[in-house]
Design brief:
By secondary structure, this protein is an alpha/beta fold. The chain has seven helices and five strands. The protein has a five-stranded mixed beta sheet with strand order 3-2-1-4-5. A hairpin with an 8-residue loop joins strand 1 and strand 2. The longest helix is centred in the C-terminal third of the chain and has 24 residues. The radius of gyration is 18 Å and the shape is globular.
Length: about 200
């Protein structure tokens, strides 16, 4: 259920929820939910995209150590293709909140909409810059997905996945045309779908 609560008034047992990986052409969408501990503050929480990789890595460990509860969840490529990326993201967010070892009193979701949850929830546009728990969730999700994409680089060499993390960069699009889609490419996304419908386009 979604509630129009003033999230600035709620301090305890608030879960911040964020995602990473909606835009890439391959790999899962990864989400995280975090309930911070007011007694164990974490300095420097910010939107994961604005932090250096080294800082994200350090905060990743600190968040998991100090948070009251955290959960990293995902929706697989097959689910993205079946449901579409929006519904797959909502499913992954739902999994992250339901996977918390502590039930939050409120879930604050980065963005303009909320998944269906068993706890009260509210969307927060640009929440990773406004709500520390959402910033923490964005860091867990991004570091987790980035690490996985580095592993995919070794499994599927030639695409540059470790560098662009699956996003449709010129390097990625060129490799896709030259080598064709891998099992981790999202068949429902335009550039991949077009190649599958017109395989003669593969160099």
């Amino acid at each position: 259920m979604q509630m129009g609560l003033d999230f600035t008034l709620v301090e305890e047992l608030v879960a911040g929820v964020d995602e990473v990986g909606r835009g890439p052409l391959c790999g899962p969408v990864v989400t995280a939910a975090v309930i911070l501990d007011p007694a164990r503050p974490i300095k420097g929480l910010s939107d994961s995209k604005k932090l250096s990789e080294a800082r994200r890595e350090a905060l990743f460990d600190e968040i998991r150590e100090k948070a009251l509860a955290w959960c990293i969840a995902r929706a697989e490529v097959e689910e993205i293709d079946q449901l579409n990326i929006l519904h797959a993201t909502m499913l992954a967010m739902q999994r992250a909140v339901e996977g918390l070892s502590v039930t939050p009193k409120l879930a604050l979701i980065d963005g303009n909409r909320c998944p269906k949850l068993k706890v009260p929830s509210a969307p927060v546009v640009q929440g990773d810059a406004k709500v520390p728990a959402i910033a923490a969730a964005s860091i867990l999700a991004k570091v987790s997905r980035d690490r996985e994409m580095q592993e995919m680089e070794a499994l599927y060499p030639g695409y540059g996945i470790g560098g662009h993390k699956g996003y449709p960069t010129p390097v990625h699009l060129e490799a896709l045309k030259r080598l064709g889609p891998t099992p981790i490419h999202r068949r429902s996304f335009g550039p991949v779908r077009e190649l599958l419908e017109n395989p003669v386009g593969i160099l």
